[in-house]
Specification:
Length: 370
């Protein structure tokens, strides 16, 4: 086991591997083949997940939280062995919180193709080497199909609510469209029903940065740290779309630090280094490809026909300063679902869905009170 782990560890950037401390993760092994929407299959999938609260008899209190692109199952909890960072939505989950664990059983799973315990490019393939470039293309529908099998394994027939922002909002919407009988409530936040040219263009540029790193090696990294330079550039590009121009100007302007760097460039470098230390470049490419191919109407007669399948009580929300997923994209979903768009005021751009926890929490409470 140690030899396999060392071989895989030498061929990736950041992320979690079997043999690392599990932290709060639990695991379910889905026996294969796991068939995929675009063709091909995986011989089996390991799903890493975390839970909070107690599952009630009949499982009527289960809520699924869907993480965004570089998130993971660690919604709440400190950094520590097995968890490179603290929870990403901590004030939303816990006793008395909007997702009140005195009443609810909250589940969050690392996504298929990720790098925090669920099978992805840095995981070991059956031959013991990392999947690398051999990892197949996965879609949002594939990711939700794996989550549905996790729910089955946990004895959860339906969710009281499924909640997600950004990439997590795509999976939440896919749940409500593909399995309406299993979703009682939907919280769709700072996301879109179909990938647009702006998102695809931004994300293919990020992928190009990773693939242009000589260490990328076609997705099969040479021993060493991997394509961290390319991943860092991708993160810089992405982070500019996550924050608003107003906020960046207010915080940094054209200030030059004592070391001669622009303050905003130093800030972006800091976030690039943080991501490279905890995330795998192959997962970044696989997951942004899944986001680029996202279209809830594919194979369903278009977006309007797909959204007509939703029976869940729904709350649709966006952030007024979001330049990655502008509120017009949530407005389309709200209109088709027949609910008002709830706009969260924030200077923080797309990241407002993570930062504005008071406003987000109020909407979560509203959804669950219905």
């Amino acid at each position: 086991m140690g030899g396999v782990r060392e071989a895989v560890a030498a061929s990736r950037t950041g992320g979690w591997l079997a043999g690392d401390p599990p932290g709060r993760r639990r695991f379910v092994q889905l026996d294969g083949p796991v068939r995929l929407e675009r063709g091909g299959s995986l011989p089996g999938v390991r799903v890493a997940y975390e839970t909070w609260g107690t599952l009630a008899p009949g499982a009527g209190n289960a809520v699924l939280v869907e993480h965004a692109l570089t998130g993971d199952s660690h919604v709440v909890g400190p950094a520590g062995p097995g968890h490179a960072t603290a929870g990403w939505w901590p004030s939303l989950v816990g006793p008395g919180a909007p997702l009140d664990t005195d009443e609810l059983f909250v589940v969050c799973a690392n996504v298929l193709g990720g790098c925090q315990g669920t099978t992805g490019p840095s995981s070991s393939a059956p031959d013991g080497a990392a999947w690398g470039s051999r990892f197949p293309e996965v879609t949002v529908a594939d990711q939700v199909a794996v989550e549905a099998r996790l729910a089955d394994a946990l004895g959860i027939g339906s969710w009281r609510a499924v909640l997600g922002g950004s990439m997590g909002g795509m999976r939440a919407l896919e749940w409500a469209v593909s399995r309406p009988e299993r979703v009682g409530g939907l919280f769709f936040l700072a996301s879109a029903a179909v990938a647009g040219a702006d998102q695809i263009g931004t994300q293919t540029t990020q992928q190009a940065a990773i693939r242009s790193d000589p260490a990328w090696a076609g997705g099969d990294y040479a021993p060493g740290p991997g394509p961290v330079a390319g991943l860092g550039i991708a993160r810089r590009i992405a982070h500019l779309t996550y924050r608003s121009g107003v906020e960046l100007e207010a915080r940094f302007g054209s200030t030059v630090q004592d070391d001669g760097r622009f303050a905003v460039a130093s800030y972006l470098e800091h976030h690039a280094d943080k991501l490279a230390a905890r995330f795998d470049a192959g997962s970044y490419v696989v997951l942004t490809e899944a986001m680029n191919s996202w279209d809830v109407g594919r194979g369903r007669g278009g977006v309007a026909a797909a959204l007509a399948r939703v029976t869940a009580r729904s709350v649709v929300a966006g952030v007024d300063s979001d330049r990655l997923y502008p509120p017009a994209q949530q407005q389309l979903v709200a209109d088709r679902l027949g609910v008002p768009l709830r706009v969260i005021p924030s200077p923080y751009g797309h990241d407002g869905f993570l930062v504005e926890t008071v406003a987000v929490g109020a909407l979560v409470r509203e959804l669950l009170a219905g």
